[in-house]
Amino acid sequence: MKITGKCSVLLLSLALSIPYMTFSDARIDKNKRRIAQINRQVTQNRNLIIKNNRQIVVTKRTQASLQSEINDLNFQINKLQKEYNVLEQRYIELLKAIGANEKDIKASISKIQSSNAEIKVNKDEYNTKIRNYDLIRRARNINQNSGLVGARRDKLRHDAHAILDLQINKIKGIETYKKGVEQDKIKVEGIKQKNQSEATKVMSARNDLENKKKELNTAVARKNKAVAELRDLQNKLRKENITIEKNNSKLASERNRLEAQINAIIRQNAIRQQQLERQRQLALRRKQQQGSAKHENINVSQEPINVVKGTGSLIYPIRGRVVVGFGTEKVQGLKSKGIEILGTLGQSVSAADTGTVIYSGSLGGLGRVVIISHGSLITVYGNLASIRVSRNEAVRKGQSIGTLGRDSETKKPTLYFEVRHGVNIVNPMSYL
What we know:
Elements: H1 5-146, H2 150-290, E1 321-324, E2 329-331, E3 334-335, E4 339-342, E5 348-350, E6 355-362, E7 368-373, E8 377-387, E9 394-395, E10 400-404, E11 414-421, E12 424-426
Antiparallel strand pairs: 1-4, 2-3, 4-11, 5-10, 6-7, 6-9, 7-8, 8-10, 8-11, 11-12
């Protein structure tokens, strides 16, 4: 049917305003979704900074604890080093003492050997003198026969005994000296053995200290490495925080820009509504002035808008599950003005009721869009992959008007379905 007069003027206003308002709403929604995404990202970044700062605090505490342990280990190492130095000095002294003992023992052995040789010489001399004395004694017997006087004979015997006594005493003296040297040697050997035993113990204790010191040095090296790793981690976290702060600054700038765009769109919407209202009032005045029925059909394109009235009862445009309800906050601070139905990519989208297409094209964040007037109701179909109808085309209830595409944000095949009563947005579920 063809609508004329005041109804045609109102319909013209709706036909001109709804696509613009839907486009503006789509841009605002898109910006709000991005702002919500930015806010989430900024919050995540701030939480990450807080987490990093906490980790830095923990690493600093761990580092301080490790440093305290390192200081304690170094103290123990220094203490062990002092003990080691004392043992090392004692070990050197013992080695020197053992060397002196060995020197004394060698000297004693040399003296004993010399005494043995001297004793042998003296014994040989003694034996020689004994033999000589025997010869003298035999000669004396012979001389008795030859009439040797007794006085001379006695003197010779006395001299022989004296010489033998001297020789015996000399041998005894040498043997006494040798015995003393042997006793000294035994004493020195005992001292040497004692020194060697102590040196062995000192060396064992020194080696134990050396091993302990090595273990402590290994522990210190391991802890120093851990401290270095903690410092590297702290530097890494600080750099990461700086990067995050820069990213947050960029996100804040983008958020300010998007909010400014939203405010500009709202101002433009208000101006547009004022312009449309003036156009409507002007058209009404012109119609009233003309007073002629032949000029009642008003259309900017000079094409009459043939509106096919709907039944007032809507059907689901696609089979699927409603994943976003009317008024639901899809993202924080942004309520949905329609519903979203999850379908399959390329699925046929049907007209919810009989009516006339008043818009067919692209609308920002909603992608390809079809808007159908059913008289008092207007339905909006967004996220279409393809469109099968054109403006001013009459459509039947259930007729395919396009195919389902993807949501620009979620990338899922969801149909955006909006219902307006006049220019007022209403809950689609009240009519389905």
